[in-house]
Design brief:
With 465 residues, the chain is an alpha+beta fold. The chain has 3 domains: 39 residues; 87 residues, Roll (Pdz3 Domain); 264 residues, 2-enoyl-CoA Hydratase, Chain A, domain 1. The protein is 30% helix and 22% strand. Strands 1, 2, 14, 15, 18 and 19 form a 6-stranded antiparallel sheet that branches. Strands 4, 5, 6, 7, 8 and 9 form a 6-stranded antiparallel sheet that branches. Helix 6 packs parallel to helix 7 and helix 7 packs parallel to helix 8. The longest helix is centred in the N-terminal third of the chain and has 34 residues. Belongs to the peptidase S41A family.
Length: 465
């Protein structure tokens, strides 16, 4: 088995991450540049202390004169969260309860409605519903804005406060008001909370020759679930397996180590991903180890605007190495790594500590993964502007490809005319997508047809050489 664990610290690129630390060394104190640096540092510290005095003054004034008594801990935690959320959309503070909830979530079991969310314009924005949860069954969609919970506006709540309200006892109900782009009237849904145990990998045979694996998130169970899925599909196909479809649509991400292991499952060598932090010495790089769980079968990776972070690491690694053909629509574009740093007795902070880069050196921050072959889910999507992406979030990190331009990707080595057979849009009058009917999933069917045509064309191309 290759590369099974990288647990020196739990780092996340989408939903969760863990602590990593780096040391620094001081040079000789007598050198003039060092003296100058210390002088600058001392001046910076003095300014920091003055600003902390300002905070203490404001805190005392609020505590003494606000119209109602305030809770000191709530006020301080709100101030900390405001500082972190002012940095970028993904940094935040978690109190002790929220930190425990996050740890439960990374283990793959948690309570609530079953939606991955962010915050935009004061509202709670749905990144993706989790498969087979109350939210998914009720029809909640990526890009939906949750404006009210039980009739009360979410304006003024932190993201964590809104998430806390969405969680609750199993069997209890919550009325959710949604504003959906393109829909004039608010959508009212009453959802019944469940203990969320998302099945991280769903798989089946498409026909008798194509294996289909959908990963819904990247938690501690993902890599083992993928390996089990591929092993089962190979057994079911009985030697007739022509290719694998890896479906990462609406997968909001998760643990960095799981994204690395899933990528490694399809690669025999080469870089998977690298990260660059504030200090050059904190840069990290991960490489694949020999062993491909598919025995080099053709692979199509499906992505869309709900594919974020860890999903984009996998898609980017397989695309850069030309190990898979990426198909679908442009992904979300979250190219940053968050580290969860526990504060003993007081929860933890989730802090953006690095950007990640695909093997070719691309940052997808704000850009996303552009599919090799674009296939849109609906005809309406072809006329709609790109929205609900990382680049549109307030204070999103800039992309630094201009400062570090990556080389162009190598061309796809496909049989002549194969890509041209893939349809970009569903035909007029095509049936609306029904999750219970795979035949209505246009992107899936195009991927399956592509793999079958590739399997037929490949021997012909070899024979013609």
């Amino acid at each position: 088995m290759k590369g099974r664990s990288m647990k020196p610290g739990l780092r996340m690129v989408g939903v969760v991450a863990a602590a990593f630390a780096a040391g620094t060394a001081l040079g000789p104190l007598v050198a003039p540049p060092i003296v100058s640096a210390f002088a600058q540092e001392a001046g910076g510290r003095a300014e920091s202390y003055r600003l902390l005095d300002l905070f203490a003054t404001v805190f005392e004034r609020v505590k003494a004169e606000y119209v109602e008594p305030i809770n000191d801990r709530d006020a301080i935690e709100s101030a900390i969260n405001g500082m972190l959320q002012g940095l970028d959309p993904h940094s935040s503070y978690m109190n002790a309860r929220s930190f425990r909830d996050m740890q439960v979530q990374t283990r793959g079991e948690f309570g609530g409605l079953g939606i991955e969310v962010s915050q935009e314009g004061g509202y709670v924005k749905v990144i993706s519903p989790i498969d087979d949860t109350p939210a998914a069954r009720a029809g909640v969609k990526p890009g939906d804005l949750i404006t009210h919970l039980n009739g009360s506006s979410v304006q003024g709540l932190t993201l964590q406060e809104a998430v806390d309200q969405m969680r609750g006892e199993r069997g209890s109900s919550l009325k959710v008001t949604i504003r959906r782009p393109g829909t004039e009237s608010p959508i009212e849904l009453t959802l019944v909370r469940e203990v969320i145990r998302p099945q991280v990998a769903r798989f089946r045979m498409e026909g008798t020759d194509i294996g289909y694996v959908r990963l819904s998130s990247f938690n501690d169970q993902t890599d083992n679930a993928l390996r089990n899925a591929v092993t089962t599909l190979r057994r079911q196909a009985g030697g007739n397996l022509k290719g694998i479809i890896l479906d990462l649509r609406n997968n909001p991400g998760g643990l960095l180590d799981q994204a690395i292991q899933v990528s490694d499952d399809f690669l025999n060598q080469g870089e998977i991903v690298s990260t660059r932090a504030r200090r050059p010495e904190d840069a990290q790089r991960w490489n694949a180890k020999p062993g491909d769980i598919t025995d080099n079968l053709h692979v199509v990776v499906l992505v869309n605007g709900g594919s974020a972070s860890a999903s984009e690491i996998v898609a980017g690694a397989l695309q850069d190495h030309r190990r898979a053909v990426v198909m679908g629509a442009k992904s979300f574009g979250k190219g940053s790594v968050q580290t969860v740093m526990p504060i003993p007795g007081n929860g933890a902070i989730r802090l953006t500590t690095a950007r990640y880069y695909t093997p070719s050196g691309r940052s997808i921050q704000g850009l996303g993964i552009t599919p090799d072959i674009e296939v849109l889910a609906t005809r309406e999507e072809g006329n709609a502007p790109l929205r609900d992406r990382e680049a549109e979030l307030r204070r999103a990190l800039r992309n630094d490809n201009d400062a570090h331009p990556p080389p162009p990707l190598p061309p796809l080595e496909l049989p002549a005319g194969l890509a041209d057979k893939v349809q970009r849009l569903p035909p007029e009058g095509a049936a609306a997508f029904d999750p219970a009917k795979p035949e209505t999933d246009f992107q899936l069917q195009q991927a399956a047809g592509f793999l079958r045509a590739w399997a037929v064309a490949e021997p012909q191309r070899r024979a013609a050489r």
